[in-house]
Amino acid sequence: MKKFALLALSCLLSSTLTFAQITPAPSPGASISQVVGVSKITIDYSRPSLKGREIFGKLIPFDKVYRTGANAATKIETTGDITVQGQVLKAGKYAIMSIPNQTNWTIIFSKKLDVTEQNYSASDDVLRVTARPQDVSSVETLTFDFSDLKDDAATLSFSWEKTKVSLTIGVDNAASIENAVNQKNIEASNTFQQAADYMLQKGMDLNKALGLVDKSLALRENFRNNWIKAQILDKLGKSSDALGFALKAQSLGAGDGSYQFFKDGIEKGIGEIKAKIPAAAPVVETPKKKKN
């Protein structure tokens, strides 16, 4: 009997799950993406419909926080930094909340992705902007869209009932390109640095290792590639030259959190390098001849 009850419960759960998967949602999910400049912006939201109801000011009250959709709060994700109404929104994923108003809407970007009207807290706000609503012909189903696309700008709008709210999206292409180049330089610098360090540790061709670490330094200086060069120069018998790079590694390390793991070794190495450099002979001044 017990086995039969368990089997019946299993079948009931299975059929319930299957039923839930094939039943149309009252507010179906949707997603829209647009590349602006080099940043991809994606909106994920649910689409409620009017169904003869009055929405803003009635079903959704004015001057109270609203999830800007149905079901879960609408989400925005951007792969690069953008501006919204002229204010910076860093790359990342955020929930979009809003405060409807007859003359001025407040649009809120929240770091709390599971935010609702009930658990909303302004302390989770990343950005707030305002926008004037526009009167439009009736829109049955909530719709987000991108328009006015340019190399460095676009308009993000959402429309429902007889209201449309538009936000100006901007991107800084020059900064994006510079950041991308810097990132590639960092990656290349790290590659040259790792190769030079490997050759150093394995006692391979030190002159080649020196060439590799020089390429790393040319792209981006840090305490590690300076210290690698110091060690290579020291092994090549150029301790005086090595000391300068070793001291620079120590100086740069002061602002790097990972330096603590290398600090003892570098300080010990500096002492060993100094010990190999002959002390400068005291300069003896030649007595000046007295003038007759």
Strand order of the largest sheet: 1-2-3-6-7-8
Helix amount: 25-40%
The SSE string, one letter per element, is: HEEEEEEEEEEHHHHH
Number of separate strands: 10
Report low-confidence residues grouped into runs of 5 or more.
4-9, 11-19
Beta fraction: 25-35%
Rg over CA atoms: 32 Å
Tally the helices: what do you get? 6
| Mean pLDDT level | 91
Broad shape? elongated
Biggest sheet: strands, sense, closure?
Answer: 6 strands, antiparallel
Distance between the termini: 132 Å
Structural class from helices and strands?
A: alpha+beta
Characterise this structure.
- The chain is α+β, with helices and mostly antiparallel strands.
- Helix content is 36%, strand content 27%.
- It is built from 6 helices and 10 strands.
- A 6-stranded antiparallel sheet has the order 1-2-3-6-7-8, with no helix packed on it. It has a 4-stranded antiparallel sheet with strand order 5-4-10-9, with no helix packed on it.
- Helix 3 runs antiparallel to helix 4.
- The longest helix has 29 residues.
- It is elongated, with a radius of gyration of 32 Å.
- The relative contact order is 0.09.
Supply the key terms.
292 residues; alpha+beta; 4-stranded antiparallel beta sheet
